[in-house]
Amino acid sequence: MSRLFPAAHMSLFALGLTVSALGASAEMMEVVGIADGDTLNVRQGPNAASADIGDLEEHTMVEVLGRNFAQTWAQIQYGDQLGWVSTAYLASSAPPPAVIGANVVTGIAADDPDGGLVVRGGAGTDFAAIGTLRNETLVHVIQMAEGGTWAMIGFGGNVGWVSTTYLTAANTLPAPTDGVDPHTAPDGGPLPAVFTVTGVAANDKLWVRDAPSATGARLGGLTPNSVVSLNARASEDWGQITLNGQIGYVHMGYLTRAAESGGTTTVNGFPLGLTCRGTEPFWTLTVAQDRTVEYTSLIDGADPITSLTQTTPAIGGGYPYTFGAQRYSGTLDQTACSDGMSDISYSMSLILTRAQSGGGSETLYGCCNVE
């Protein structure tokens, strides 16, 4: 039996559109992938043979009203008429959502009355504010709560909670330059990896800058023999690191792979030979070269020796790392740290979750060095 369709529906099928596609809410997308000096053709119908009715420049935002059945063409509003563009040159304009790992603070208004993204003592606006974060601050999300609307982050040597509305997943790798592989160091070895600062005078520092150039602003400095994780190679001579939660760059001529300088080996860039210490209670955690993990505290004594089972770098590589070892999980960040009890200078901080033998868990905060 033949089926009859109203004329309006026939026109939709002739164009190759589903009715549901036109009924769906419009989506904002960005024109991408256009060669220099070229434009994206807007056509009268969903095929390359259809008449050209206009052009769109790279990065133009368009409102997609629907797609053909094959999803290869998108219908857009072009001036006072409808047109079609190839979906091969469209990308979603929505930022990637917050994820466990590295994220960037975005969307805070310049005149925000709070002065930035409010960090709170718990997952919700009922908890007290403990600080604020500016746009483009790099943060590490440890876990989510309240249906993914709140995120626990490392903050000031402790933890805090922020709304995920203002977090965007961060791709922290530098944009590759001609002839440079971001994952290969000048010595030919893989990145990320741990290096030692060498060739710097005793009274001097290796300066960390905000761009891969000697003209970049100084973000801080690394003293001789400091242990640093190199996330990626940004140019012929400069490498990317994370310092106090910020992306920075150092001249790689002053870095020696840790294993070559009598230092450590790594797992995915996570340093072995690590010693971490904390107070309240006094405790020590070590991750040996053979990946064994030992924990001792003044109150509970020594836990059974276990082994490192998982190390995961931040998105794009490098710090902060998350790791696991049976009853332990933690976040290791490359940030200056003080134990508040001694004059020892630590180059890394640790948030450690330890499962307790009687059930439940405790969260501990400490400082780490490769020893």
Features:
single chain, 371 residues, mainly beta, SH3 type barrels, ten-stranded antiparallel sheet, 2 helices, globular, disordered N terminus, Cell_Wall_Dynamics_Protein, signal, SH3-like_bac-type
Q: What would a concise description of this structure say?
A:
The protein has 2 helices and 34 strands. It has 371 residues and is mainly beta.
Structural commentary:
- The protein is mainly β and 371 residues long.
- It folds into four domains: 7-92, SH3 Domains (SH3 type barrels), CATH 2.30.30; 101-169, SH3 Domains (SH3 type barrels), CATH 2.30.30.40; 193-261, SH3 Domains (SH3 type barrels, Roll); 266-370.
- The protein is built from two helices and 34 strands.
- It has helices at residues 7-15, 19-23; strands at 27-31, 40-43, 52-56, 61-67, 73-78, 81-86, 90-92, 101-105, 117-120, 129-133, 138-145, 150-155, 158-163, 167-169, 193-197, 206-209, 218-222, 227-230, 232-233, 238-243, 246-251, 255-257, 266-267, 270-271, 274-278, 283-287, 292-297, 301-302, 306-307, 310-312, 321-325, 328-333, 348-355, 361-370.
- The strands form nine sheets. Strands 25, 26, 27, 28, 29, 30, 31, 32, 33 and 34 form a ten-stranded antiparallel beta sheet that branches. It has a five-stranded antiparallel beta sheet with strand order 6-5-4-1-7. Strands 13-12-11-8-14 form a five-stranded antiparallel beta sheet, with no helix packed on it.
- It is globular, with a radius of gyration of 26 Å.
- Keywords: Signal.
- Residues 27-94 form the SH3b domain.
- Residues 1-26 form the signal peptide.
- This is SH3 domain-containing protein.
